[in-house]
Amino acid sequence: MQLDDTICAIATPVGEGGIGIVRVSGPDSQRLTSKIITLRRGIPLQTMKSHQLYLADVRVALLDSEMSSVHAAMKKIDEALVVHMRAPRSYTGEDVFEIHCHGGPLVLTMVCEALIQEGARLAEPGEFTRRAFLRGRLDLTQAEAVLDTIRATTSMSLQLAQEQLAGGLADTVERIRERLIRVLAHLEAGLDFVEEDITFLEQDELKETLMLIQGDISTLLKTAEHGRIIREGVNTAIIGRPNAGKSSLLNALLRTNRAIVSSIPGTTRDVLEEALTVNGILLRLRDTAGIREASDEIEEEGIRRSEEALKQAELLLLVIDASQDLAPEDIKLIQDSAKKKRVLILNKTDLPVKVHERDVEACLNEASVEDVNPDHTVLVPVSAKTHDGMDRLRQKIADVLIRDRRETRDSLLITRLRHKQALLSAQEAIVNALFAIEQEFSCDCVAVDLRASLQYLGEITGSTSTDDILDRVFSEFCIGK
Ligand code: GDP
Q1: Ligand 1: which residues within 6 Å by Cβ?
Q2: Cβ pair 392, 343 in contact under 8 A
Q3: What is the value of pTM for the model shown?
Q4: Which residue has the higher pLDDT, 461 or 481?
Q5: Count of Cβ atoms closer than 10 Å to residue 58 Cβ
């Protein structure tokens, strides 16, 4: 990627807004900006103080329709506030200008086109942040946290992004890396003097240190599940027999917990999807139209939909009509959903109840499904009609998703698959190194594994990243960020 040219882009969303911002970054940003911006009171652009707003007129070349021949003249198209962030104290680490115009799509496009006309290049998606990374303003985990901040859907995911942006994850990974580098340095010093028979690090000490490092990596890895749930939300399905109250329950939850979710660029949002925030966790519910239609449908169709949802969802909300005896279909759904995280909801408790918690528990005990985690099932009586038990339901949903909530408050969480995979590879390399020591292989062999582990850890923060990794990380960004 070219780093020495000057890029520009509209940094605010497409459409009308109070203001819209065009960003310019690169060595030539001052000259280019001066072509279209005139500061008020005759202040020359090059005397602008860094990080201060100035009122200015925006002028671009427009074809003059009055003239018979094609003739462009500089015409005022807007007034704007302009700020210069002098290198290296800017987001990208380069000379940055921001032009805060009125937020009309035409004005912003004209400003951008005029800059391109003068020699700027339209930025690639994420290029401002990529430049910030390449100039050492951010590491890769922080760049990803910028994106997570933009995309956050719950206050919990936003907090997590902010911790990562503050460098929490990078610091932890770097500490592990530094320890590994010290071990490797000792080992390599030992390698150099191997003929003189100097052992710089005793074998036991080496093993012990590596096991501690492996322990630190595995502690981080244990947080990946919760981190992912908080960052991405959980694919959830509401299942149950027709008329059990699925649609009523969905409405009861949506009434107070509807989440704001925007579509990810390049994808169209599933219109049948609803999103809820339950105690800080985002639940994505697919095919909710199906739920809403299902009540007047034949039993089989309802069950078919439930079975489909059952396969795809990570969390199941299984609704049982407690005012009716347990039907064979209820029992089948209870048994078939045993391997998932699930909340068994005994609905319609405002009516005379025929199914009690103990009945469902008995049914659970009878179902002889292997490898079932008992922590993954909770049972809650509610009334979707009177909203009795809804608070408890929300609490139980959060509990079944995140067992130990303290863990998520006090410690750092891994949120991305990319980080998890790198940590797993780093851990595997350390296990290989320990094996090599155990087998009394040469120091060379151990060193190879340790270097591999370092490489994987470095990929997380970007200290040893390849273009391939950078392309993957920054391709998720939008233009102008
Ligand atoms: P679905 O087919 O599972 O989506 O069920 P609906 O939500 O459409 O509910 C079916 C019927 O049960 C409707 O007439 C609802 O008003 C009623 N219903 C749902 N929840 C409750 C509840 O908690 N108490 C009572 N009394 N009726 C309920």
Answers
A1: 240, 242-248, 291, 294-295, 347-348, 350-351, 383-385
A2: no
A3: 0.80
A4: 461
A5: 22
